[in-house]
Design goal:
about 220 residues; about 15% strand; alpha+beta; four-stranded antiparallel beta sheet; 8 helices; 2 domains; Alpha-Beta Plaits
Length: about 220
């Protein structure tokens, strides 16, 4: 046996994996499914988007189970692990993630699959509990309130000053975001932070030439 054979033998023996029993595989899958189901429920509870993305939420537990299966397969053989790395390198995900919280939940789901597949389910449980406490605490704290958008339509562009006086009376924050003027028409979009919403709209509608006044809430960036 020459030096090359000895090196190959030591390499293969050094990376040889212990055989996985059906019991250990099923246990890993059950724990992964339980934690991923918890992620599924938590995402539904704290989701603030106007349109709940059910397909994305379903993909979270599916992603965790798939990742756990990949990690379990990699443990069985160094050859399979190298082949799987090459196969997965050609996969491209082109779905845009618009909400940063969706990215957090996606990475959380993948991490649970990796950790459980590697046999460290306790770490996955503890990390999930810590992350849940952090998300719920940050979600509960009144850090800032998202402003609203006030849309005002008027048949005259000469009463903008009166509109802004009423807005300033009721709003602690007001900022004109858009102003569209025609020969005899005025459309305004004003970013406002207001408590007495109904009173603001009612007083605006009392002005002469006001056609409509709408107050729209949104879940975008907050203004401090």
């Amino acid at each position: 046996m020459n030096f090359s054979d000895i090196l190959k033998k030591s390499f293969v023996e050094g990376y040889a994996s212990s055989a996985l029993s059906v019991k250990s595989i099923l246990l890993c899958m059950v724990i992964t499914i339980l934690i991923s189901a918890y992620i599924f429920i938590l995402y539904r509870v704290i989701n603030r988007q106007s349109f709940y993305n059910k397909n994305f939420n379903i993909s979270l537990p599916a992603m965790a189970v798939i990742t756990a299966a990949i990690i379990l397969t990699i443990q069985s053989s160094i050859i399979i692990s190298l082949g799987m790395v090459g196969a997965l390198s050609i996969v491209r995900f082109r779905t845009a993630i618009k909400d940063p919280m969706d990215l957090v939940f996606l990475f959380w789901s993948i991490s649970v699959g990796i950790v459980c597949g590697a046999g460290f389910a306790v770490i996955a449980v503890i990390a999930s509990l810590v992350l849940t406490c952090g998300i719920l605490l940050a979600n509960w704290l009144p850090i800032a309130k998202a402003p609203q958008i006030l849309l005002v339509n008027s048949d005259s562009f000469e009463n903008e000053k009166e509109i802004m006086e009423i807005v300033g009376k009721y709003c602690s924050l007001h900022r004109v975001k858009a102003r569209n003027l025609t020969k005899d028409h005025l459309d305004m979009a004003i970013e406002v932070r207001v408590k007495e919403e109904a009173q603001l709209v009612k007083e605006l509608m009392k002005l002469k030439a006001i056609v409509s006044a709408s107050l729209i809430a949104h879940d975008g960036e907050v203004t401090f």
